[in-house]
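ingest -> fold -> write
write: protein_1
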Amino acid sequence: MDMESALVCEDWGLVDYRTAWDRQERLFAEAVRRKQAGLPVTGRLVFCEHPHVYTLGKSGKEQNMLLDALQLRAKHAGFVRTNRGGDITYHGPGQLVGYPILDLEHYGLGLKRYIYIIEETVIRLLGRYGVRAGRLDGATGVWLDAHGPSARKICAIGVRSSHFVTMHGFALNVNTCLDYFNYIHPCGFVDKGVTSMARELGREVDMADVKSGLRELFVQLLAGE
C-alpha cells in the first residue's frame, strides 16, 4: 500500500473545539488500542475550522490570556485547557486546523522529526504562494522574517503523542481575523507578531486549494520525499 492510500483525509468543516477534541480522542484511543493489539493503524489527516476559541497547552501560562471570562463572552470566544504541547493560541473561522492522527513508528519517525515535517509541509505550501517562510530557533511553528525585526508567526503547532501515536497538530492562518490575537501573548511571545496568508498576499485565499496542497505535501514528506 502506498503512503497516500494509507492516509485517510477527513474534512470536519466548522466544528466546536470541544466536539472536535472529543472526536480526536476517540480516534486516538482506537489507534492506540489497535497498535497495542498488533493491528494496523489507519493514518488520518483531519482538516477543520473552529468558532472563536483560545486554547492553552499543558506547559502554557494562564497569564498569557489577557481577557477575563466576561470579556471572552463579549468577544463570543471560548477558553479551553488542552492536553497538547505548547502555550496559548487562538482558533477561529478562516484558520485551517490540521489534526494528524498517526502511528509515528509506522512511518519510521520520532516526535522531533514529525514536528519538522509539519513545519516543512507548511513552509513548502507557502512557497507555492510566493510567501517565504521558515523556522525560529527554539520555537515550534512557521514564521516569516523569523530572525528579523518584523518576525511574525503564521502557523502554530502543538501535538500530543502517546505510544508514538499523535493527535492535535497545527493551525495555519489563511483568512483568519487577526484581531483576536491582540488579546493573548500568542504561544507565550510578547515581542513577536502574527500574520495570515491573506494579509501577506493582500487577498482572500481559496481554502480548498490550501487543503489540497497541504495534503499533497504532507504525504510526500511522510514518504521521505
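write: protein_2
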Amino acid sequence: MTPLSLVIILILSVAILVLLLVKCRMHPVLGLFLTAIFVGLTTGQGLLNTLTTICSGFGGTLTSIGIPILAGCVIAMGMQDTGAVISIANGFIRLFRGKRMELPVALTAYVMSIPVFGDVTMILCAPIANVLAKRTKRSMSSMAAWLSTGQFLTHGLVPPTPGILAVTLALGASLGGVIGWGLLLTFLAFLIAYVLLNSWILKEYIEPRPDFVVGIEESNGSVEDLLIKGENLPNFFAALTPIFVPVILLTVSSICTAALPADSPVLGLTNLLGDRTFSLCCGALCAIALGLTHKGTVVQNAIRNTPSFKGDKMSYFRTVSDNWIERTCNVAMIPLMVTAMGGAFGKVLQTAPAIGELGSWIAASNIPAILVPFIATAIIFAASGSMTVAAMTAVGIFGGMMDVLGLSPLVLALVIGCGTLTFNHANSSGWWVLTQFTNLDVKQGYKYMTFVNCFTGFVAFGLLLIFYYTGILA
C-alpha cells in the first residue's frame, strides 16, 4: 500500500464517519465501530484481525481512563451537592470586586471543567451566569462567550477530561507536562482573547433567560449584594480542593520525575502520588470529605437533583455510596464508551500498512510537520462535532508518526488538543445546550460562541508555536 492510497482511505473514513454521525444521526460509538471496520478492511488487515484490534484498542483505552473518569464524575457530584461551584463563583466575584461579572462565571467554568465534563460544567454555571447578568444588567452575549470559552479551553487541553487524557496516555506523554502546559496555554489564550474581543461582544445587549431570573432584582452595586446566596456553603479554598489536589499531585510528580535521578528513593512515592488513578481518587476523597462538613446541604441537594432518592438515618452515607455513584455512572457512561471506541478506531488506524511511509512523506514535504496534525484535528472536529472523536482519530493517524515528524509526545498531545479548540458550532450537542441556557439564538450563538471559541483556539495554537520554535517547549 502506498502513502497516497492510505491518504485516500483516511479521507474516505473521515467522510464516512461524519456522514454516519451528522446525516444519519448515528450514535458515535456505533459510527466509530463501523468506520474502524471500513479502515481495517480497506487497508488489508482482514475482518478477524480488525475485530481483534478493535477489542484491544477499546479495552486498552478503558483500562487507562475508566476509573480516573469515574473519579472525576464523583468530584462533579460533590461539587454540585456541596455548593462548591457557588463558593468558587463567589470567590471570583470578590476577587473582581463586583465588576466584569462575566469573568467570575468564565473562571468558575475554566476551573470546573478540568476534572468535570463540559456539559456538566455548563449546566452548573449557566444559572449563575443568568443571575449575575440580571443583577448587574450585563449582556448575556458576554456571559455566554466567556462561559463557553472558559469551559471549552480546559475541557479540550487540560487532563483529566476524557479526550485529552486519552490522547496523553495513548501517546505516552507526561500527564503532568500536558496539564502544566495546557493550563499555561489556555490561560494566556483566554486573557488575550478577552482583552481583544470583550468590548466588541458587549455592543449587543441580550437579556438573561427569563425562567432563570424569576424574582431576581438588580443589585445595589455592592459586592456582598452580588454574591450568590446559599446555605452552609463551603469556604472558597476548601471548595477548590477536589479539583486542585489531583492537578497538584500530577504536576509535582512530573517535576520530580524530570528533576530527580532515576535511582532516587523519592521517586517511588512521587510515582504513586502522580498515578492518574490514585490522584483522581484523592480528588474524589476530598469531595467526600468536603461533603462531611456540609452533610445536611449535600443530602438536600441530592434529593432535589434526584427526586427518586429518599433520605434515611444513613442519609449521607447513602448519598455518597448510592446516589453519587448512580449519577456518576449515568453521566460517565457515554463519554467512556465514545472515548474507548475512539481508542479502538485509533488502534486500527495505527496498525494500517504504510502509516510509517505516510509520516515520512509528510516530513519530506514543505509543510511544517507541526501544522499537519493541528489542521487535521480541526477539520475532523468541525465535521464531526465531537472533540473526543477528533482527538482520538488524530491520535490514530499521527501517533505512529511522531519520530518521522520530529514531534515529541508532549508536543503532539498539545497540538491535537489545540485542534479540538477550533470550530465549535451547531453540530455539537453542547453548543445547543449553552445557547439555550444563555438565551442566544442561532445567529448569536455563531457570533458569540463559535467565533470567540475559534479565535481563542487559534491564539492557543499560536502561543504553542511560539514556545515550540523558540525551543522552550520540546
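write: annotation protein_2
DSSP finds 22 helices and no strands in the chain.
Residues 3-469 form one domain.
pipeline exit 0
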